[in-house]
Automatic annotation (TrEMBL):
Stated name of the protein: Cytochrome c4
Residue ranges of every copy of the FAD dependent oxidoreductase domain listed in the record: 7-393
Lineage summary: Bacteria, Bacillati, Actinomycetota, Actinomycetes, Streptosporangiales
Keyword Oxidoreductase: yes
Organism expressing this protein natively: Acrocarpospora pleiomorpha
Keywords: Oxidoreductase
Annotated GO MF terms: oxidoreductase activity
GO cellular component: cytoplasm
PROSITE patterns (UniProt xref): PROKAR_LIPOPROTEIN
InterPro entries: FAD-dep_OxRdtase (IPR006076), FAD/NAD-bd_sf (IPR036188)
Matches recorded under Gene3D superfamilies: D-Amino Acid Oxidase, subunit A, domain 2, FAD/NAD(P)-binding domain
């Protein structure tokens, strides 16, 4: 039975909500997580990279130009029908946030958050059972212009402390023998790593439960307030009362936020993946094919390809077969060992919770409501930092958990 009262009610049990629950429960707080399908949202089929190097917000002039080209059918980010007025308004804010200089001012904030998160991963590994693998993240370029852009970005990132190495074709072949030839060069980010995101999310949830958190498969459908203060949430099961509430609902945040009377500019940015079984890891590194914007994470027993950034459309749409075929074709061209895999694999589509600025929203948004959302392409990377910050906000910032 769902407990009908908790100190903190976390809405959403993806990688972010599970991490929040873990850090709260670990501080001795009584936590309930409500989610009809915990760990089955964006946290399931994503690329599974922990990438403090990848912290340049997407709303920057270069990405904007790529995005505009994509509307002409020449890049993987797209607009899908139907496009709502809300999506158009969000895109307008995204364009404004893409003005020159803005992203490079925020990249430092995101990088520091990601580094803080990486240390959180070290702490979590002592309590949660999930492996990390890969010798870093390689950005690979076949086209000289792509290569020049990758080098420019890596050199700028170096100024804020992101370590990287520029590799020519011979050096690349020496460190990554699983790749075919044909690349002009690669940037290696040695501080990045990779994992299985579904297993890791489950491990965070299990660690939270060991500290006393309770997960219940209920959807939040309404909010009860008394004198302007949130007292309880109505669910598909019982009503659950709390002293504080955390909104960790990923790409559904705008809709769920409206139930709480808050407007949060979080828009689904759909992506897709294909996962194939393997007998061993086919690559030593996680890789990004920068020309095609396809990311590959090769783990001990499966290889996953991800790509796409689609705005508009519907959450319930299946991944497009041609988009999945493209992922496979790009990876097979570059990773010869993949060509013998006959299995059709598992195709998946999910939504990144995007904000116009690329910065997550981790703050009090009403007097006893904390938002932990909008992590865009970095939710796995930033989850431990988010959990720690939310636990700090709830325990240190005057939400009266223990007064009644
Ligand atoms: C193709 C792709 C590749 C990606 N690769 C990476 C990567 O390599 N590294 C990285 O760091 N990030 C990556 N991401 C981003 C990452 O997946 C997300 O940022 C992250 O999973 C968001 O986690 P979340 O917990 O906020 O959201 P979710 O995992 O979507 O969880 C939100 C939860 O809220 C629940 N919920 C919604 N409404 C309600 C309600 N009314 N009541 C109760 N519960 C509700 C949902 O059921 C869901 O379980 C990728 C994303 C995609 C799509």
């Amino acid at each position: 039975m769902t407990p009908e009262r908790a100190d903190v009610v976390v809405i959403g049990g993806g990688v972010v909500g599970s991490c929040v629950a873990y850090f709260l429960a670990r501080s001795g707080i009584d936590v309930v997580v409500l989610d009809p399908a915990p760990g089955k949202g964006a946290s399931a089929g994503n690329a599974g990279l922990v990438v403090p190097s990848y912290t340049l917000p997407m709303s920057n002039p270069d990405a904007l130009i790529t995005g505009l080209r994509s509307l002409l059918g020449r890049a993987p980010s797209t607009l899908a029908s139907p496009v709502s007025a809300r999506t158009l308004a969000w895109l307008a804010r995204f364009v404004l946030a893409s003005r020159p200089g803005r992203a490079w001012r925020d990249v430092r904030v995101l990088h520091e958050l990601a580094e803080f998160s990486r240390r959180g991963y070290d702490q979590l590994r002592s309590e949660a059972d999930f492996p990390l693998w890969s010798d870093g993240f390689l950005h690979l370029a076949r086209d000289r212009r792509t290569w020049a852009a990758e080098v420019r970005t890596a050199r700028r990132l170096a100024a804020i402390g992101v370590r990287s190495e520029e590799l020519g074709p011979d050096a690349l072949a020496a460190i990554e023998p699983g790749l075919a030839s044909g690349f002009v060069g690669a940037i290696r980010f040695p501080g990045d790593t990779a994992l299985d995101p579904e297993r890791t999310t489950r491990a965070f949830a299990e660690a939270a439960v060991r500290h006393g958190a309770v997960f219940h498969a209920e959807r939040v459908v309404g909010v009860r307030t008394v004198a302007g203060r949130i007292e309880a949430v109505e669910t598909t099961g019982p009503t659950v009362a709390g002293k504080a509430f955390v909104l960790a609902t990923g790409a559904d945040t705008a809709a769920v936020g409206r139930l709480f009377g808050v407007r949060l500019p979080v828009e689904p940015g759909y992506g897709w993946s294909l996962t194939l079984p393997t007998h061993a890891s086919l690559l030593r590194h996680a890789v990004q094919f920068a020309d095609e914007h396809v990311v590959v994470n090769s783990g001990p027993d499966r290889i996953r390809m991800t790509g796409g950034m689609e705005f508009g459309g519907r959450a319930s749409q299946a991944p497009r077969p041609e988009a999945i075929a493209t992922l496979r074709a790009v990876a097979e061209a570059a990773i010869p060992a993949m060509r013998t895999i006959a299995d059709p694999g598992i195709a998946w589509r999910g939504a990144r919770p995007m904000t116009p600025s690329g910065l997550p929203i981790i703050r009090l948004v009403r007097d006893n409501l904390v938002a932990a959302t909008g992590h865009g392409p970095l939710g796995v990377t930033l989850a431990p930092a988010t959990g720690r910050i939310v636990a700090h906000l709830v325990t240190q910032k005057g939400i009266p958990l223990r007064s009644s």
